[in-house]
UniProtKB/TrEMBL annotation:
The keyword Membrane applies. Residues 19-57 form the RING-type domain. Gene3D superfamilies: Zinc/RING finger domain, C3HC4 (zinc finger) (3.30.40.10). SUPFAM superfamilies: RING/U-box, TRAF domain-like. InterPro entries: Znf_RING, Znf_RING/FYVE/PHD, Znf_RING_CS. The keyword 4Fe-4S does not apply. GO terms for molecular function: zinc ion binding. This is E3 ubiquitin-protein ligase NRDP1-like protein. The chain crosses the membrane at residues 159-183. Keywords: Membrane, Metal-binding, Transmembrane, Transmembrane helix, Zinc, Zinc-finger. Pfam families: zf-C3HC4_2.
Length: 189
């Protein structure tokens, strides 16, 4: 599906850049051997039920489609499209080639990722920023870090205990028996 023409800054978009199936500005433009241009998705959907070009009925199959010439693609990419969050307040218009990037980063996109600047500093979707309970998040983070510290302390205690046992065995066993003990023990690790 192409892009609706009323989403562009230019009021008069050249007819060559319009897909005759969806009547929008070509998206991922493909060309046929009869020199017609369509959106990739539009023409492939059409060819599922037909085996001709929708304009001049020339025989046509999916495998015969080619990417539109670079000059056409450049013309399309340079068209300036309004931000999809225009109604939410974004006044920017960007070149079509920057559209996806802008959409991701647009400060009006409720799904773009932002960091809470209050207490928790968590990364979240903009739409969740006002709803989230910052103090609760912070408390959960502290709880999580406490648990990690607790687990670390337990690991250290276990290591000390093993070391202690080894020293005891070392002190009470002759050296050769100690080596064979270590050897056997290491087989179980
Ligand atoms: Zn189309
Ligand atoms: Zn044709
Ligand atoms: Zn925007
Ligand atoms: Zn927060």
């Amino acid at each position: 599906m192409g892009f609706d023409t009323d989403r562009f800054e230019d009021l008069e978009i050249s007819e060559e850049l319009i897909c005759s199936i969806c009547t929008g500005v070509l998206e991922d433009a493909m060309t046929t051997h009869c020199d017609h241009l369509f959106c990739n998705k539009c023409i492939n959907d059409w060819l599922r039920d037909h085996h001709t070009c929708p304009i001049d009925r020339c025989p046509l199959r999916s495998c015969m489609l080619k990417r539109a010439p670079r000059a056409i693609r450049n013309l399309i990419n340079r068209l300036k499209i309004y931000c999809p969050y225009r109604n939410d307040g974004c006044k920017q218009s960007v070149r079509l080639e920057q559209y996806d990037q802008h959409q991701l980063e647009c400060p009006f996109n409720p799904d773009s990722m932002v960091k809470c600047k209050l207490y928790c500093q968590r990364l979240m979707k903009r739409r969740d920023l006002n709803k989230h309970d910052c103090i609760k998040e912070l408390a959960q983070m502290i709880q999580f870090q406490r648990q990690q510290l607790f687990d670390r302390d337990r690991r250290i205690q276990t290591l000390y205990f093993v070391l202690f046992i080894l020293i005891i065995i070392y002190l009470f066993l002759p050296f050769t028996s100690f080596c064979s003990f270590l050897f056997h023990w290491s087989n179980y690790l």
